[in-house]
């Protein structure tokens, strides 16, 4: 799969310089092989490779000249194979048990827990997670919403959620069932498209199987069309570009 | 503070248990008897006037209290005998070594969990365990460079740890300012007693900071990072920077470029190697911790992860002094040191364990019961003073959610004679010694912060609730050893030494 992704960030005012953390390098697993990969920016910058606490590859980007816009271009080629959503051969920095914890963006919520338990009923763990994923997919209209910072409970009560909220609802639901769950940032090549675009989904852990991908936007597990970049407790932690609040142009 | 003395006679650290001064402290007893009360009060007032002038107005117990007032000072010192101090120091060194080993393990291999010493959910479900820095290791593997271990005492050699402060313990400026006041106002005490010096603390702290600079840095630049002058401990931040002769900076003064931390100065950028930060983890780096925060230094954690800067104390340390972890400290010390903890905890029953729960339910009227996750003020039962209705309410709460509670016995806390409304009277005290860890070992500063509950019978030493402070004398044994009145320079540190007392 070929990735060609160019994002231009414009800042509200001119910045004296910029420090950003880029999680834009795909990790290798049994079903994801990086053939070539590069990150370019459209001005003089220093880039330093590193790793965050979740084990994600991070590229620190430092620009010390004034700027009011920045273009980041990612080009590469990744080979993927269909593992029915099961993650195999990945390196893990943290144990699954960590991913039971709530975060500010994914707080434990009684309404979401009740929803999860109703859907999961007496099902086996794996079947329960598939059912919850399908139920989130069916229940919500996914569309951009005005207020990106509204509490998740409010989003859940609303019928319309943005893509990140839909995935966060799945995370909270899975954790309420005692299943570790995490956010995955990456790319996805939609049916009929030739290039992949930024995408986010979830992974949940089932003892005896491992981490399994669930994409509430599609209502099924990811297959060959998904490229994983980074994982964390919520979308913010797995953010491909973290830095000063910027608007993607 | 939650420990109460009921129906037992407290050990008085100067007067002993029978009203006459302890033999080793007879001279101090005479000083108390022969110095007129009016003179003691005059000196105390003079000390407080100085503190007010200096603006030492911060709160010792965390950030909840922002009122600008001085903490009362008591003129009667608290005294440790040489052998008492030597034993106490051994326990402190062992405990702080274990804290450092625990932090290195829990953010690294997590052997202690694999070996089943701690329940894993106690760590992974705990917000004080910061996954953001998992796998990162501070320069030289030192995490808790400055620990303030809060202790209580019930007898000559009976010390118990109440709390391990391994994040950014404050109060050391009291230790130094109280001593300075005592030297000026009660010089005769220093002629009669061989009191270990504390005023080399800034030198020792700077030495500790330099010792943990990243490899290959020969003349490290060290700074103190403060949240700013609105912070309640700002006096201490500027005092420490000043006495170490290093820069006091705020986040806006630092910039990270190419994974290196720089300080902006009028002469241009200066590379920074060691940061003594007095800001919480949450406000260190908005790219990693509070992403909504505009405070902090973007890229600081990347520089730290790359091994280019030492952060004192290391990020993530909160897991070591967390309330839920506290009760496991004896096991943690044993696991890493290979021996029993020399310094005990206050005995603690973990109600998550069925046998402990049974005991607690059977002894509620004698015990103090606390919430481990301490949310809100509802979380505590003081058995001896509680009504039977309160006890029954707690019984129900304990049965419903036992894992959220621990219980402790009530202890007879030690007292020290203290200037009260009607002359000298025994008042309860606690103690916070400061323990420094650098790349060459652990040292206990021979002194500390003594807090005293000024109200009769009170066990609350918090400054917000009628608590004050005292100077803490550590007496030295060997003649020829250095005393407060002699030269202050102690030079460098040696391997795991216990300074002051008998061990120098």
Automatic annotation (TrEMBL), chain A:
**In this protein, which residues make up the domain named Transglutaminase-like?**
155-218
Which Pfam families does this one have? Bact_transglu_N, Transglut_core
Question: What's a single GO BP term from this record?
Answer: proteolysis
Task: Classify the source by domain of life.
Answer: Bacteria
| GO MF, one example | peptidase activity
Annotated keywords:
Hydrolase, Protease
By its UniProt entry, which SMART domains does this protein fall under?
A: TGc (SM00460)
Q: Could you identify this protein by its name?
A: Transglutaminase-like putative cysteine protease
| Source organism (scientific name) | Sphingomonas abaci
UniProtKB/TrEMBL annotation, chain B:
Q: Which residues form the Circularly permuted ATP-grasp type domain?
A: 77-453
The superkingdom listed in its UniProt entry is Bacteria
Looking up InterPro entries in the UniProt record yields: ATP-dep_Glu-Cys_Ligase-2 (IPR051680), CP_ATPgrasp_2 (IPR025841), UCP005522 (IPR016450)
| One Pfam family here | CP_ATPgrasp_2
* UniProt xrefs under PANTHER family: BLR5612 PROTEIN (PTHR34595), SLL1039 PROTEIN (PTHR34595:SF7)
* Full protein name: Putative circularly permuted ATP-grasp superfamily protein
- Organism, as annotated: Sphingomonas abaci
């Amino acid at each position: 799969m070929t990735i060609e992704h160019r994002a231009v960030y414009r800042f509200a005012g001119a910045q004296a310089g910029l420090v950003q953390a880029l999680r834009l390098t795909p990790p290798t697993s049994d079903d994801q092989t990086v053939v070539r990969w590069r990150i370019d920016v459209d001005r003089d910058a220093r880039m330093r490779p590193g790793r965050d606490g979740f084990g994600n590859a991070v590229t620190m980007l430092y620009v010390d000249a004034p700027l009011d816009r920045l273009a980041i271009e990612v080009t590469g080629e990744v080979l993927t194979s269909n593992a029915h959503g099961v993650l195999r051969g990945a390196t893990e920095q943290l144990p699954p048990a960590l991913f039971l914890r709530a975060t500010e963006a994914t707080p434990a919520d009684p309404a979401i827990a009740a929803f999860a338990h109703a859907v999961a009923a007496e099902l086996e763990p794996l079947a329960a997670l598939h059912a919850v994923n399908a139920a989130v997919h069916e229940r919500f209209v996914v569309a951009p919403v005005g207020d990106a910072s509204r509490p998740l409970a409010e989003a859940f009560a609303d019928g319309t959620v943005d893509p990140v909220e839909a995935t966060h609802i799945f995370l909270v639901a899975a954790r309420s069932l005692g299943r570790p769950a995490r956010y995955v940032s990456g790319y996805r090549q939609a049916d009929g498209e030739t290039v992949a675009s930024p995408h986010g989904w979830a992974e949940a852990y089932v003892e005896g199987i491992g981490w399994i991908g669930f994409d509430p936007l599609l209502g099924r597990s990811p297959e060959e069309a998904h490229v994983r970049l980074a994982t964390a407790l919520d979308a913010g932690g797995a953010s491909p570009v973290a830095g000063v609040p910027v608007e993607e142009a | 503070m939650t420990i109460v003395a009921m129906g037992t006679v407290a050990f008085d650290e100067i007067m002993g248990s029978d009203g006459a001064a302890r033999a080793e402290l007879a001279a101090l007893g005479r000083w108390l008897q022969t110095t007129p009360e009016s003179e003691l009060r005059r000196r105390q007032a003079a000390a407080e006037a100085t503190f007010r002038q200096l603006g030492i107005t911060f709160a010792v117990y965390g950030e909840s209290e922002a009122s600008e007032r001085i903490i009362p000072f008591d003129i009667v010192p608290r005294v440790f005998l040489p052998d008492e101090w030597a034993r106490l120091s051994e326990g402190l060194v062992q405990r702080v070594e274990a804290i450092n080993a625990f932090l290195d393990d829990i953010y690294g291999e997590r052997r202690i969990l694999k070996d089943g010493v701690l329940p894993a959910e106690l760590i992974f479900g705990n917000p004080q365990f910061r996954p953001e820095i998992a796998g990162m290791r501070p320069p030289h593997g030192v995490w808790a460079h400055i620990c303030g271990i809060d202790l209580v005492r019930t007898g000559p050699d009976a010390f118990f740890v109440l709390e391990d402060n391994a994040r950014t313990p404050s109060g050391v400026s009291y230790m130094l300012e109280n001593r300075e006041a005592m030297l000026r106002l009660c010089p005769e005490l220093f002629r009669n007693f061989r009191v270990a010096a504390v005023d080399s603390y800034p030198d020792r702290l700077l030495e500790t900071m330099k010792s943990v600079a990243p490899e290959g840095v020969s003349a490290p630049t060290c700074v103190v990072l403060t949240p700013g002058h609105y912070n309640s401990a700002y006096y201490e931040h500027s005092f420490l920077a000043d006495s170490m002769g290093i820069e006091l900076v705020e986040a806006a003064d630092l910039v990270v470029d190419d994974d290196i931390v720089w300080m902006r100065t009028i002469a241009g950028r200066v590379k920074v190697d060691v940061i003594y930060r007095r800001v919480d983890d949450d406000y260190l780096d908005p790219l990693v911790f509070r992403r909504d925060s505009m405070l902090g230094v973007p890229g600081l954690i990347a520089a730290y992860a790359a091994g280019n800067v030492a952060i004192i104390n290391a990020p993530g340390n909160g897991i070591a002094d967390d309330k839920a972890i506290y009760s496991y400290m004896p096991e943690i010390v044993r696991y890493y040191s290979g021996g029993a903890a020399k310094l005990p905890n206050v005995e603690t029953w973990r109600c998550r364990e069925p046998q402990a729960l049974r005991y607690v339910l059977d002894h509620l009227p004698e015990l103090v019961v606390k919430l481990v996750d301490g949310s809100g003020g509802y979380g505590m039962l003081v058995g001896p003073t509680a009504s039977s209705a309160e006890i029954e309410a707690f019984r129900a709460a304990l049965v419903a959610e036992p894992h959220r509670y621990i219980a402790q016995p009530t202890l007879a806390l030690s007292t020290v004679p203290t200037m009260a409304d009607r002359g000298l009277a025994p008042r309860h005290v606690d103690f916070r010694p400061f323990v420094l860890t650098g790349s060459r070992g652990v040292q206990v500063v021979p002194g500390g912060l003594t807090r005293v509950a000024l109200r009769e019978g009170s066990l609350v030493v918090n400054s917000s609730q009628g608590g004050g402070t005292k100077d803490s004398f550590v007496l030295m044994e060997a003649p020829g050893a250095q005393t407060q009145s002699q030269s202050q320079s102690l030079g460098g540190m040696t391997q795991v030494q216990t300074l002051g007392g008998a061990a120098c």
